[in-house]
Structures are given as C-alpha cells and as structure tokens.
Amino acid sequence: MAEMTMRDALNQALHQEMERDERVIVVGEDVAGGSGGSSGNEEAAGGIFGVTKGLKTRFGGNRVIDTPISESAIVGLANGAALAGMRPVAELMFADFVGVSLDQIFNQMAKFRYMFGGKAKTPVVLRMSMGAGMNAAAQHSQTIYPMLSAIPGLKVAIPSTPADAKGMLATAIRDDDPVIFFEHKALYARKGEVPEGEYLVPFGEAALLREGSDVTVVAIARMVPFAMKAVDKLAGEGITCDLIDMRTTSPIDEETILESLSQTGRLVVVDESNPICSIASEIAGLAASKGFHDLRAPVQKITAPHTPVPFARELERLYVPSPNDIEAAIRAVLKEV
Amino acid sequence: MQQSPDQIRQAYRQMRLIREFEERLHVENPKGEIAGFTHLYSGQEAIAVGVCENLRESDFIISTHRGHGHALARGCDPRGMMHEIYGRADGLCKGRGGSMHIADLTKGMLGANGIVGAGQPIAVGAALACKARGDGSVAVSFTGDGASNQGTVFEAMNMAVVLKLPKLFALENNGYSEHTGASYGIGSDLKTRTEGFGIPVWEADGFDYFSVYEATEKALDYIRAGNGPAAILATATRYFGHFEGDPQAYRAKDEVKTFRETVDAMKTIREKVTGAGIFTAEELDEIDAEVLALIDSSVDSARNGPVPGEDILMSDVYIDY
Ligand SMILES: Cc1ncc(C[n+]2csc(CCOP(=O)(O)OP(=O)(O)O)c2C)c(N)n1
Ligand SMILES: [Mg+2]
C-alpha cells in the first residue's frame, strides 16, 4: 500500500494498463498538451487535471494522442478504434461535454453489440471529470451519471476513493463493454491508501464502508465522504449506520443495498444529481419494489435541487448536498417508527 | 483613417477598458476572492472592439468562454460584469453565471459560453431572426482557433451559407487552444477552410484596431448587401494563461513579453492616433485615468456586493412551472 491522491491513483492505473496491453491508447484534448506551442514541450499538460501526466513521454505520441476540440469525433474515433481491435481510453475533460458527443455515446457505442447480433465488441473507456466544487458553473459542474446509467449497453463507474479509482479504472480498461468513467473533480486531491501493482475492483459490487444497525446510507462519488462525515458524527451519539458506496450505477449492486435495508429498515440515499430521475430515485424505487416490507420509515432522498449548477460560492454551497443535510436526513428517518 | 475623432476616442476607451479590466482581474485573482475559471482577453482587445464598433444596436453578438472583451466591446456594464465575476446578487447574471456566462440580452449580447463551439449555431439562429426582421441587422459569433475545429462550427458555416443569412464569423486566432498550439489542431488553415464553405474571409492584424475595423466593415458591407455570411480572420495572442493559474508550460518564456513590447494593441492604437495628430498622448492619458477610476470603483463595490441566497438559487429555472 502507498498513500496517494485519486489523481495519482488514476494515473498509475493508466500507466500499468498501457504497459500491460499495447492496444490501450489514450485520446483527448490536452491529454499530453503542448504540441504546436512555442516552448517545444510536447507534454505540457498531461490532462487538465493531471491524470494523464507522463503517459506520452513513456508510451509515445502514437498511443497518447492529443486531439482538436471535437468531442463528437473524439468519441467516434474511440468507437471505431475499439470496433477495429484497440482499447481506447478517451477523455472528455468535463462530463458536460457529453452534450457535444451524445450521439456517439448513446446511439453508437452503447448499441453496437445488441444491434449487431452480439458480434461487436466496443471496449471504450470514456473518462470525464464531473461535479460541483470548483464554482465552474452550469456548464462545467454537472453530475450526469443518472442520464448515462439509464442507457442499456453502457456500464457506469464512479469511484470515491483513490484505491477504487485505480482498481475500477483498470477493470474498466479490461472490460469488453463500453464504460463511462466519472471522476469527481473535487476528489482528485483526496488521499488514501492504494494497493501497489495489479489491482482490480469488480463492477456491480458496492462497498460497505461503515457498519451499523440503525440506518442504511447509500452514496455516490463526493457524497461518500460527505455521508461518512455525517455517519461518523452520529456514531458518537450511538446512532450507527451502514454506509454503502455504490461504486457503479450500472450495474447496480441491489443485493448489498437490500441486505442492509433488511437489517436497518431505514434508508437515506445521497446523490449530487438533480432529483428527477436521479440515482436516489432509482434506489428509493428499489426499496419500494423489493424492500417494501423492510421499510420502517419513508426513504429520504438527498439530492441537489431541480436547478442548474450556480456559479457563486454561496450558491454552489447551497446547491450541493452537505454533511449537515445528510445528518438531518438520518435523524429524520429515525423519527419515524 | 476615415473614422471621426469621436469614433476613435470611443474605440480607444473601449480597448483601454478591456485591457484594464483584465489586467486588474489578473492581479485580483490570486487573492482568492474570485471563484471559478477566469479566462482573460488581454492582448486581443483590438479584435472585439474592431468588430463591435461596426455594429448597430439591433445587431447580435455571441461570445465564447473568453467573453469579457466581447461583452465590454458590446457595451455591457463593466460594474455589473465585475459584480458577476465576484459572484454577487446584483451582478449582471445575479451571480449565477460568473465569468464564463456573462450575458446581456438588452444589448444584443447572447452570452459568453462554456461550451466551445456552441455559439456559432445559435448565432445562425439569431441571423435568421435578423433576416426575418428585414432591418439589415446581423449576428456575429466569435470563434477561437481551437473552437474552429468543432463540428458545430462547420455545420453553422454551411447552414449560414445555405440559408444565405446575415452572419459574421469573427475568427480569432490567438495561437492556442488551451495548452495546444493552433498549428497542431487546425489541419489546413482557417482562411482556406472557411472559404471552402463559400464564405469570403477578410484577414486582419488582430493587434491593430484599424485593421480589424476595416476588415469587419468590408465583411459587413458584403453581408448587409444580402450576400449571406462572411468572415474576418484576426490574428493576435493572449497575454495570460488559458485560465488564471495556468502555468503555461507550452509557451516560450519570452513569447508574451515580445508581443507586449512590439505589436501590443494599446501601443499600436496610441502610436497611430497620436502619430496622425488626432489626439495627443495627454488626451489619451486622460481617458486612461477615467477608465482606471471606473475599474477601481467597480472592483471595490464588487468586493463588497450583496451575497446571493436561496431565492436566487431556486428562481429562473423556468418562467412558469
Ligand atoms: C465542448 C468543449 N470542449 C472543450 C472545452 C474546454 N476548453 C475550454 S476553452 C478551450 C480552448 C479554446 O480555444 P480557442 O477556441 O482557441 O479559444 P481561446 O481559449 O484561445 O480564446 C477548451 C479546449 C469546452 N469548454 N467545451
Ligand atoms: Mg485560441
């Protein structure tokens, strides 16, 4: 184990997987950066969040490819290269840019295998940063995983710890299906212990991060550390919770959530997305349809409001669910008998 | 120089306003009071002003992520913009948008935009409305070298030609698309490519207000005569990083210094205007002082402006819901 940031853990996974399999390539805007610049440094960026640093120097310009600003063609290129036998890891920089490339994602990569009679393989990993936390406003802060999780054919991975980031990215790269890989930009600097060498985290298995008997708290991405704060605080008062990090929103590990709910009877779901058709709604629906007889209180959904992400610090703070909101929700489900 | 002294004074003031607005933000940014991404326009002032000084009140512009210069050149209120950049409730967009989304529909300014390449098709729509109105108005989209590679720009160009719309493509080559040089990202060149769509291109020196003004004038004559879209292509540089805080490892150490010392837009317009005897250096200095005072007071009031709250977070998602 070594302590490192999520950024470095992702970077390590990319290095290891590129080392292991020469079909793995990295494409995107400024994944290396500097080409055509006056300093002559042809790896001046390494990704705007530094996740792809060092890859071009190590693996060369044939495998680490800077592209023009052309998101539709970036994803299309990844799709075509994948159909033709490569294993592209494409970067969209900000999840919001899915808007520019959505056809290639939901009409193309997601559907090839099914439409083509089960004969196609599209092992694309589409990495993108997401989430509020940088005051980057309405077009650079969205958490659009509910939308993409709803598309059959895509897998959706959303790590919250450096170790999971490494293990899940490696799994995504080795997966033969297309994987949308969300990296919460407020977590890039989050530190944690990361296993050295080959490390794989299977998809469809949630992580039980805290064990308790009073309430089941399900969270995703940045909401995991926020929920942990609330859960740990309440533990001091003798209120104990199961804290479940979903890790993948497609597939969803229903079993872990339902098993916990059968013990606690109370459910809080924390999701940074907008409330309508959110993952919080999905999990509340799961509880209603498959855990109904275990429920002892109405499910509490903690989400962002039904608004775009605002710019100002004070507004963004109001927008993003907080540890206090989560704590209040846990207390609220406990009030119901 | 066929422009009147009043026109030239106005253009100079607008350029100075942009320059000082941006230079001041560059100083203020590291202090930590300004949130989010700030993309500064210093170095390119002559382009925004050279274009916008040609426009009528009924015309439209749409900007990019680097929008302060376009907004100021179009007449957006500098104080309202500063308050917006500081995230204030009384900012131009109530603190919801910030630097990257400054807009003022009352000025025909359809917004800065965080999505590269999103503005061009929108401007095609505005141009359609201009054509329908039949009053000779035009819509202008600003497009960087990097943005020019976006498919939406190609679609907008073709559609504007097909529909013969009063649309000006203002192409700004500042040499970089984030950390990547323009020469890397653009396969052919912007002029040839744009002409390939059937759009005539007037080239301009993006450091020289008069050069941009005249190129735009010709392009607008062509457009307002009903010929369909036209373009100008202006080349300059940005003085600061892609965003505030960018370490700029892609850039040679002295690149900006050289531009500032040789072809700088403010230096160029001052030399031309004083050289032709239109204004004295002292007269221009007076304009500078007035602008500086305006920036000072805008920053002061923005720093102390009202903080937005729940009502601003929750309103305006819809008109009626
Ligand atoms: C669709 C989309 N892709 C990528 C980005 C990230 N991005 C913001 S500005 C920029 C470079 C734009 O370059 P250019 O058009 O030359 O404008 P400049 O920054 O030089 O003013 C990039 C890649 C974005 N905001 N939107
Ligand atoms: Mg540029």
TrEMBL record, chain A:
InterPro entries: THDP-binding (IPR029061), Transketo_C/PFOR_II (IPR009014), Transketolase-like_Pyr-bd (IPR005475), Transketolase_C (IPR033248). Residues 4-190 form the Transketolase-like pyrimidine-binding domain. CDD domains: TPP_PYR_E1-PDHc-beta_like. The keyword Plastid does not apply. Keywords: Oxidoreductase, Pyruvate. It comes from the Bacteria. PANTHER family: ACETOIN:2,6-DICHLOROPHENOLINDOPHENOL OXIDOREDUCTASE SUBUNIT BETA, PYRUVATE DEHYDROGENASE E1 COMPONENT BETA SUBUNIT. This is Pyruvate dehydrogenase subunit beta.
From TrEMBL, chain B:
This is Dehydrogenase E1 component. It catalyses: N(6)-[(R)-lipoyl]-L-lysyl-[protein] + pyruvate + H(+) = N(6)-[(R)-S(8)-acetyldihydrolipoyl]-L-lysyl-[protein] + CO2. It comes from the Bacteria. Residues 13-308 form the Dehydrogenase E1 component domain. Keywords: Oxidoreductase, Thiamine pyrophosphate. The pyruvate dehydrogenase complex catalyzes the overall conversion of pyruvate to acetyl-CoA and CO(2). It contains multiple copies of three enzymatic components: pyruvate dehydrogenase (E1), dihydrolipoamide acetyltransferase (E2) and lipoamide dehydrogenase (E3). InterPro entries: DH_E1 (IPR001017), PDH_E1_Alpha_Subunit (IPR050642), THDP-binding (IPR029061). Its cofactor is thiamine diphosphate.
